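Give me the fold.
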Amino acid sequence: MTFTNAPVTRLAVLGLVSVSIAASMLDVKHYFYVLIDTHLWRYRQFWRLLAYQACYTNSTEVLFAAMSLYNMRVVERMWGPRKYASFLIVTYLLTAFIPLLVMAVLRPLSSTLFNYMPAGPTPIIFAVLAQFYAMVPHMYKYRVATSQAPPTSEPFRGVTFSDKTYQYLIAFHLALLQWPGSVIGAGVGWLVGHAWRGGVLPVALMSWRLPGWMVGLSPQRRSAEFEGLRRRLEGENSTGVSTGVQGQPDGGQADRRRTMGQQIVDQFREAL
């Protein structure tokens, strides 16, 4: 596996797998799920709101969650690690209580179905999936026929898929593993992700960012990157000056003073 330009995704996958294995080996998995009537109403264990998304309690969920996070690492590459990490933290705080609040409202309908919230960051994964759905275009589509093709020229009957379909199927399977709690968490995460993208959330939450040093973006490193970019641009400009305006005094400064439109016209004139 490669996590190039995705350090936050790498940390999330390794942390999720490590904490899940540690919870199983230390036999503390009972601390990571929530029973509304017992843990919240009776014993007031509100710390479980922040703990239940830390890990999963079975290997199947760990596998599908790790695959989902890895396949959606392109979101971090498009946003950058700082914005992506900030989004994960804000989503984590919002989904810590909203799914349980929804289950508490639905609990009078069935005290057994809507009482158990399973462990795992399924809401966070679906919030990222909402960004993946909106930001990443599909590369290709393919169709699967549902019946044998007739000899006559009838319209095609089948189902159309894309290269992103398998990612949605993995996430959908993850949401169904411990329903209805996992389904409610997935639905809340999907809505939170779209609320972030649509600007529905408070501006303070959407504009908040982690300090750069927490994701390895120190001021010295950023200044070095900008300096390297500036040197590359100057090198390209100097190359264009040496090939296009040799023999002119102070040609480099004259080339920098020209507008972009004039430079494009000169390029076409040289080509002709």
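The beta strands are 34-35, 116-117, 141-145, 158-162.
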